[in-house]
Amino acid sequence: MLRPTEKIWHNGSFIDWEDARIHVLSHVVSYGSSVFEGIRCYATARGPVIFRLRDHLRRMLDSARIYRMEVGFSLEELAAAVVELVRVNRLASCYIRPIVLRGYGEMGVYGCRNPVEVFLACWEWGRYLGEDALASGVDVCVSSWRRPAPDTLPTMAKAGANYMNSQLIKMEAVANGYDEGIALDAAGFVSEGSGENIFLVRDGRILTPPLGASVLPGITRDTVMRLAGELGIPVVETLIPREMLYIADELFFTGTAAEITPIRSVDRIPVGAGRRGPITEKLQKEFFAIVEGTKPDAHGWLTPVTAMEAVENR
Ligand code: PPE
Question: Is 192 in the pocket of ligand 1 (CB under 6 A)?
Answer without folding.
Answer: yes
